[in-house]
Structures are given as structure tokens and as C-alpha cells.
Specification:
Layout lengths: L46 H11 L7 E2 L9 E2 L4 E8 L10 H10 L3 E5 L1 H6 L1 H9 L3 E5 L13 E2 L2 E2 L4 H19 L5 E2 L6 E2 H10 L2 E2 L4 E2 L8 H9 L6 E5 L7 H14 L3 E2 L6 E2 L1
Parallel strand pairs: 3-4, 3-12, 3-13, 4-5, 8-10, 11-12
Antiparallel strand pairs: 1-9, 2-14, 6-7
Helix pairs in contact: 2-8, 5-6, 7-8
Length: 282
């Protein structure tokens, strides 16, 4: 059953999941879904285009693995004192909750932000997701279908098994791409994988699909495990063009409180907050 949450409810009712503090991008026991290269072709691409991608990349061996792989964008170029706040909503057994304090603060303060949202989180919070997508301060982007590291050969990160073929890479991106597009009438242009790990072949495939891969320069809450002072300290050390990675799916975390401490300090320093759209990503 889909659960609809509203930011405007006086009481947030949580059912069916527990919040849990976790290490950076919560490890999961979920296994990679094995698919043949001829099944479950992505609907956002023509079958012919998908087959072309499969043919082009299936024999390529990756030479890089990690968060700072060639082609991954980690910051943006600006001559102004601007930074981008990005928030992941990861989904899954311990990742589908809502940090309502965080969203309320962002809306009350009208802080432009970019939300990277996973398919499973959308399924559990469809009504709220549509409310957030309708808020001009939020840019909605793609955080994957099953929250997997993006790999063509099944490499894992933080205990989460990655995609294991070119076709699975395509599915991890495009299935959630289709869902977000259907619900918002806007097609995401950016992608961040579960764990923010990639190999270089997968990054090239993402670019072929039409999305840029975006990570971060500021580890803002370390998978929602930082104390409020650690969140504050991470954010106030920002430089122009930095991209901060935080989480919006762990209401028991101190991410919101740390953000509340950091924002006035950053504003006093002359910083403003921007979304990632139309930025010159680097």
C-alpha cells in the first residue's frame, strides 16, 4: 500500500518502517537483480537505442571505481558566493522515512535545493513526493531504482551489491527516470547512484542515456550519522561552487538541526543557495 504523507499534517504518521542511523549511504542486504540483456528493456529509451548501448559497452572493461571517477561532476563553476545543497532520499527498509523538520525548514526559509530521490522512496511517499515536486524551491533528480552502486560487473560499495551488467546499469537509471517523469512531467537531467559509487563505463552509459552524474564536494551528514555540530561545521567550511550531500529520509538524525545552525552563518558570510539546474558542473 502506498503511504501519502503531507508536510502540512500536524502529526506525521509513520507505518511499516523504522528509522535507523546508518553509515554513509546505508548498507543493505538486498541483492542485485539479475536480468538478461534482452529482457526488461527501458521504456524511456527506444528498444533500438538500448540495444545500441548494450552492443557498444558490453565488451568494455572498467578501469576506474569510486566516487571521483572520470566524468562524475562534483562541483560547479561560479564567480559568486554560491553553494548547492543536495538531499538524497534513498528508500528501502530503513530509508523510506521523511525528515519533515528538514523539509519544513527548507520551505519556510525558501532555500533552493536539489533532491535526489530513489524509486522506492517515491513508492512509499508518492503524495509527498508530488507535493515536493510542485515546490519551486526543489529540483527533483534521479537517485536510482534499487539504490545500487553503478557497475557493469557487480562491484559493491558499503555492503551494497552493484549492478552487474550494461543492461542493469540502464535499468537502474531509466526505470526511476520514467517514474519521476510520469509523476512530475519533468525529465531528470542528473543522476546520483546509491552509495555514490561508479565505474567509468557506467558513467559513460549514463551520459549516453542523457543524464550527468553528480556527486559532491561536502560530505554534509555522513549518511545522516553526523551530530548537528558536525553537520554545521561541514557546511560552514563551504567554498563557492561546492555541492553538499545530505539526507532527507532519516527523521531521527540531526541533519535538520545542523542545517538550521549553518544557514544563518553561511548567509552572514554572503553565501546564497542555488539549485544544480543550469549550473556549469565540473
Amino acid at each position: 500500500m502506498k503511504k501519502t504523507r503531507s508536510l502540512f499534517l500536524s502529526t506525521l504518521i509513520l507505518t511499516g518502517c523504522q528509522s535507523q542511523s546508518v553509515a554513509f549511504h546505508e548498507p543493505s542486504a538486498e541483492k542485485s537483480i539479475v536480468r538478461s540483456e534482452t529482457t526488461a528493456l527501458a521504456s524511456s529509451l527506444s528498444n533500438q537505442r538500448t540495444l545500441e548501448i548494450l552492443a557498444e559497452y558490453k565488451k568494455q572493461d572498467p578501469v576506474e571505481w569510486g566516487e571521483r571517477v572520470t566524468g562524475v561532476k562534483n562541483r560547479f563553476i561560479t564567480t559568486n558566493k554560491e553553494i548547492a545543497l543536495t538531499f538524497d532520499a534513498c528508500g528501502g527498509p530503513h530509508g523510506s522515512d521523511v525528515d519533515e523538520k528538514l523539509f519544513t525548514f527548507l520551505i519556510d526559509q525558501q532555500i533552493p535545493s536539489t533532491l535526489f530521490v530513489n524509486s522506492r522512496w517515491i513508492d512509499e511517499n508518492t503524495g509527498l513526493f508530488q507535493e515536493l515536486a510542485a515546490e519551486p524551491i526543489f529540483q527533483i533528480e534521479n537517485h536510482g531504482t534499487n539504490h545500487q552502486p553503478l557497475s557493469v560487473n557487480g562491484r559493491s560499495a558499503w555492503g551494497i551489491m552493484g549492478t552487474s551488467s550494461v543492461n542493469e546499469v540502464v535499468q537502474e537509471i531509466t526505470q526511476n527516470q520514467d517514474k519521476i517523469t510520469e509523476l512530475t512531467d519533468k525529465k531528470p537531467s542528473l543522476f546520483r547512484s546509491g552509495t555514490a559509487y561508479y565505474d567509468d563505463v557506467s558513467v559513460n552509459i549514463a551520459n549516453e542515456i542523457g543524464v550527468e552524474v553528480v556527486n559532491y564536494t561536502i560530505l554534509g551528514d555522513a549518511g545522516a550519522t553526523f551530530s548537528r555540530d558536525q553537520v554545521k561545521d561541514a557546511l560552514i567550511a563551504a567554498s563557492p561552487g561546492d555541492i553538499a550531500l545530505l539526507h532527507a529520509n532519516q527523521p531521527a538524525s540531526e541533519t535538520a538541526e545542523g542545517l538550521k545552525l549553518a544557514v544563518p552563518i553561511l548567509k552572514k558570510k554572503g553565501y546564497s543557495f542555488v539549485q544544480l539546474k543550469n549550473q556549469n558542473l565540473q
